[in-house]
Each structure stands twice: as C-alpha cells, then as structure tokens.
Amino acid sequence: MTAVIECSGVMVAHGGRTVLEVPSLAVAPGEILVAIGPNGAGKSTLLRVIGLLQAPTAGEVRFRGEPVTAQRGLAVRRRMASVFQEPLLVDASVRDNVEVGLRFRGVEATAARPRVARWLQRFGIAPLAARRARTLSGGEAQRVALARALVLDPELLLLDEPFAALDQPTREGLMEDLGAILRAEGITTVLVTHDRGEALALGDRVAVLMGGRLLQVDETAQVFRAPASEEVARFVGVETILHCPVIGRDGELSLLEAGPRTIEVAQPAEPGEWVRLCLRPEDVTLAAGAPAAGSSSARNRLPGTVTRLIPAGPHVRVIIDCGFPLAALVTHRSVEDLRLVEGVAVTAQFKATAPHLLRSRKA
To answer: What global pTM score does this model have?
Structure first.
C-alpha cells in the first residue's frame, strides 16, 4: 500500500547545526501517527517538512508515492489541511469560518452549505452556527478550526498541538470526539505533541523525536511498553530504571539481581549479562506490610518502605525503598485505604511481564 506521505533521508540544518534527521518515515492511508518529544525535539520542523512549508536541507518527501518538487508543492499542499494550537478564526460567524476554505477553493455556496452543516453537526457545534467567533470558548473555537479543516476533505490532516491551550476536561472531551471522527472517516493524520496522554488516546503509531533525531517508530502500545532506549523510556513515563546483572534463566524467564532483591522478568537474557530493567509506575501495585504467602499472583513481591508521596493529579506517586528506589502510581483512595505515609512498610508487587529489558554492555 502506497503511503500518503513519506520522508526519506530527510535532514534539516540551520546555521550548520542539524535540527532534524529522519532516515525513513511513512504514514499509511487512514493511519494516525503521533510524533512526540520534548520542546525543541524537532516536532514542529517535522510537521513543516511534511506539510511542504519547509524544504529539507537534504532528502526527499513523497506524496502518494510521487516526489514533491517545487513545481508540485502548491498543488499537493491543497490536498492537506492543518490545525494549530491557536484556532486562528476570522471575525465572522461559526458557519462562515467553517465555510471559508471552501470559498477560497471556489466551491459554490449551494455545494458548500451541506458540507458545512455536516461538519458542524459532527463536532457538536451546529447550535453555534450563527455565533460570532470572538464569543466562543477555547474548546468551541478549536472545534470550529477542526471542522474548517475537515470540511475540505483533506487527504492528509496535520495537527500541531491542537489541545495544548485547553483545560483538561475540554481537552479530554475534544480528543475523544476527534479520535472517533478520524477513525470513522479514515482520515490520515499526523499529530505532533509533547503530551503522552494524547499519543495514547489517538495514535495508531508513535514516532519519538529527541534532539532532532527519530529514536523509535512503532505501534503506540509497543513504544510505551517496550521503549527502544533509556532516553525514550524516561520520556514515555518509565520511572524505575535499574542496571542489573542477569543471575539465572529458566526458558523465557530471566532472574535479575537488583540490590538485595531478585526480580523475575518474562524476557530472555543471558546469565552474566547486564541489562537495564524498565518498569512503569502504573504497573506496580502496593499492599500493606510485608509480603504474605498467596496474597498475590504477581511473581515479584518486594518488601520496602515508603519514602515519599507526591500528588500527581488524580493519582499519587509513591516512592518506595526496596533496596533501590521504586516508583508506583496509585489513587488517592488507595493512599487512604493502605494508610500510606512516609516510613510505613509496604509490599511492592508487579508481574514478570511488566518490566522491559534494555540490553547493556557486560560488566
């Protein structure tokens, strides 16, 4: 299947400094690709290159299998649509804002009207059709901007942090609606964001950018469960990373020595090898007191002491001293039920399938 957009050997440099390097990246028809990374990672540069707003210093961009040349650039850009962090609406009604792109493309009003009505309805803003854009809330304005983009029936939708300026409830509601629309309509989309939650909610695949380099591209679950490097692991939310020797192996089960504890991991590694164990905090559950026989099906049950409790929105990040620092993410209710305070004894539990191993040099 021919990719809608493809970058091959793309490099962008400014003042002799490489700011983006993408050996290969392709977006399939109907796919939602989310590019994530910290500020300055090169995400916006990548989107400008994909959107044909910036020519790469080296490499090639292909649209529907054909190289994009300067002569074809404008015609190809008209087959795309973009939405930015700021809605950029004109001082007119909601209906007129959604219709403006169709007017620029010469679509007759009689043909435009039903298309506009459909997208007003899809984004739940039909009752606002006559409202002036300047009277809208941030979430309403961004729904208008999305409807304005999608009414054009773009072959590629480019989203540059469209939820960044919204409060959490508004952002979550819009993400849910947009994700349902994009999948129902099969709209090929590239979204750039620094927010891991947006990648998890919307992405079919995730591309991780760090320092202008493309470090990993894979299915969303794979990137978050099996990051390709420690750098990627830390960015996607892995908090416990331990440098451990492998002390035994039983088939696909490896035994690791982590300080005074032995950890079982359902991933093969060779005895004598040193690895980095990566464990997400949400994969760790806590029980009060010392480990009790038969109290859990988890293969790893480590005694420890709570050293810190850090509020994190609807959750609390709990740091436990198990002979090494281990992070768990629990609800406020769990903190109350388990009577978690600094100094209390707990058992940290996680399945053998929870950790991911990164290969390292032997000691």
So the answer is: 0.93
State pLDDT tens for residues 295-312. Answer: 677 899 999 999 999 999
pLDDT tens track for 35-69: 999 999 999 999 999 999 999 999 999 999 999 98
> Which CATH code for domain 5-235?
3.40.50.300
DSSP-assigned beta bridge partners for residue 303: 347
The single residue listed with the structure tokens 């090494």 is: 324
Three-class SS state of 213: strand
Three-state SS sequence of 126-146: HHHCCCEHHHCCHHHHHHHHH
CATH architecture of 238-359: Beta Barrel (2.40)
CA–CA separation, 288 vs 258, rounded Å? 22
CB 149 within 8 A of CB 82: yes
Q: Domain locations in the chain?
A: 5-235, 238-359
Helices 168-185 and 138-150 pack at an angle, to 10 degrees, of: 10
d(CA 286, CA 349): 6
